[in-house]
Write a structure and sequence with these properties.
This protein is an alpha/beta fold and 499 residues long. It contains 19 helices and 13 strands. Helix content is 44%, strand content 13%. Strands 1-2-3-4-5-7-10-11 form an eight-stranded parallel barrel, surrounded by five helices. The protein has a three-stranded mixed beta sheet with strand order 6-8-9. A hairpin with an 8-residue loop joins strand 12 (457-459) and strand 13. Helix 1 (2-20) runs antiparallel to helix 19. The longest helix is centred in the middle third of the chain and has 23 residues, at 207-229. 50% of the residues are buried. Ligand GBH binds at residues 33, 36, 183-184, 187, 243, 245, 323, 328, 344-345, 354, 367, 395, 438, 445, 454. The site of ligand GBH has 17 residues, from loops.
Length: 499
């Protein structure tokens, strides 16, 4: 009788614990990117990137007129970063290679000895600490030389990127088994070619869409290079990291514009890769063709794919890489309503207004509104649209102004978003295989400079030593990673009760 009761309690307790536990094999990590942390902008033979050019030639482009010439000085302090990664017990660390640090001229004829040495040190250092390196090839720091030749609007960049990828695979693929080709093609093209990020070109109508086609082809060529020349030997996995917000309709009447806004903002970068049919999302392709015609263009501004290109891009993934931060409510703009460039990529092209709900808390980044359920909805939508694909959340995180180490808002953000990941896994059977916190440490937040901070660890940018300090959120995340579960205290309670 007594035994039965104990068994019953155990079963209930276990169920409770299990429902808060991440599935076996679930991987936890944290991320950074080269330009945002490294500094050493002209160390050794490193080439100039489009961000170096931007911060030096147009300081007003950055809110606090700062730059990342030194940033976190991770070019020199990388061992310190690895110590933090190890301290948190992370399974992996996602960082990026600076293309112009490895290939100073952008082309693969000359490999920098110091660049090679630096990334080897980081990779070997991680492995020595039992942490898997997850390497991004392109996190926005294009060699300026290639920008001068047209950058992502020049179709030749597809092969230049494949050449660069081959160099990286040749040097590092024996020790790196997870690769991200391109971080946020949407930011690269719609940010870079609507004048919001480097190279700061304003050409939404043509430039951004040429870029869209070429980043997809470049990603796919790099994927095929790996498949054909490295996969059999190293068995690694590759994908691209798309930035996707959750978009929901404001009213029932706004469903159609919401679907189109999703396709324009994210489907443009995911449908060609993950859908069974490949190519552009059909509704968007029709819309862009009609619109271009109305505007007097002889052909669609959304550049057509050939059949070969569709096949090349289709299926060029081993998992789905997702960067997610925030949500929007979509409605059709009123006639004559003017929407600003900053109202989001879908505004000007589609006449879609992107709003937020008043009760969604705002982070230090004005665009970052907190709506944890958005992540679960998005994960479900990805599964619904593209099938039962493995999903790696490659970025998720929260910004504050960085003045305190006691960052309860960030802890709440992580707790609430991780809870939604768990629900997607347990309730909706979405195959999320890992989660990456953005970011390991405070860093250069692009046009926001150092005014908003995403770090689990703070960095004091006023000190030449760039000291790092753990925020409360670093301790919180560490406890989640240790327990492989949320609500760590409840796990402890259960053990005490049955002991
Ligand atoms: C990521 O970008 C980057 O990968 C990373 O480098 C960066 O530090 C981090 O996130 C934090 O910003 O108003 O709906 O049009 C996210 C970039 C910025 C892209 C906001 C979308 C406009 C949203 N996102 N942007 S919207």
């Amino acid at each position: 009788m007594c035994l039965l009761v104990v068994v019953g309690v155990l079963a209930v307790a276990n169920e409770r614990v299990d429902s808060q536990s991440f599935p076996p094999g679930f991987q936890f990590g944290a991320a950074t990117s080269a330009y945002q942390i490294e500094g050493g902008w002209n160390a050794s033979d490193k080439g100039e990137s489009i961000w170096d050019r931007m911060v030096h030639s147009r300081p007003d482009f950055i809110d606090d007129r700062s730059n990342a010439d030194v940033a976190c000085d991770s070019y020199n302090l990388w061992e310190e970063d690895l110590r933090l990664v190890q301290e948190m017990g992370l399974d992996f660390y996602r960082f990026s290679i600076s293309w112009p640090r490895l290939l100073p001229h952008g082309f693969s004829n000359k490999i920098s000895e110091d660049g090679r040495r630096y990334y080897n040190a980081v990779i070997d250092g991680l492995r020595a600490r039992g942490v898997a390196p997850v390497v991004t090839l392109y996190h926005w720091d294009l060699p300026q030389r290639l920008q001068d030749l047209g950058g992502w609007t020049n179709p030749l960049i597809v092969e230049w990127f494949a050449d660069y990828a081959r160099v990286a695979f040749t040097l590092f693929a024996d020790r790196v088994s997870t690769w991200i080709t391109i971080n946020e093609p949407g930011s690269v093209c719609d940010g870079g070619y609507r004048g919001l990020l480097a190279p700061g070109v304003r050409d939404r109508e043509i430039g951004a869409l040429l870029c869209t086609k070429h980043v997809l082809l470049a990603h796919a060529r790099a994927y095929r290079v790996y498949q054909e020349e490295f996969k059999a030997k190293y068995l690694g996995e590759l994908s691209i990291a798309n930035q996707e917000s959750w978009y929901e309709p404001k009213t029932d009447q706004d469903m159609e514009i919401t679907l189109l806004a999703r396709e324009y903002s994210f489907g443009r970068y995911s449908h060609p890769i993950y859908s069974a049919a490949g190519g552009w999302p059909p509704a968007l392709e029709r819309y862009m063709a009609d619109n271009s015609k109305k505007e007097g263009y002889p052909r669609s501004r959304l550049p057509a794919f050939t059949q070969d290109e569709i096949q090349l891009v289709k299926g060029s993934f081993d998992f789905y890489g997702l960067n997610h931060y925030t949500s929007r409510v979509v409605r059709a703009a009123a006639p004559g309503e003017s929407l600003s460039r900053r109202a989001g990529v879908a505004a000007e092209e589609l006449g879609a207004a992107l709003e937020t709900r008043p009760h969604w808390k705002t982070a230090a980044s004005s665009w970052l509104k907190v709506n944890p359920e958005g992540l679960r909805n998005l994960l479900k939508l990805i599964k619904q649209q593209y099938g039962d694909v493995k999903i790696l959340i490659t970025e998720n995180g929260y910004s504050d102004t960085g003045h305190q180490l006691d960052d309860h808002d960030r802890i709440n953000y992580y707790k609430d978003y991780l809870e939604q990941v768990l629900l997607a896994v347990t309730e909706d059977a979405v195959r999320v295989v890992g989660y990456t916190a953005w970011s390991l440490l405070d860093n250069f937040e692009w046009t926001s400079g150092y005014t908003s901070r995403f770090g689990l660890y703070s960095v004091d940018f006023t000190s030449p030593m760039r000291p790092r300090a753990a925020r409360a959120s670093a301790r919180y995340y560490t406890s989640v990673v240790r327990a492989r579960a949320l609500r760590v205290t409840r796990v402890a309670d259960t053990h005490n009760a049955t002991a």
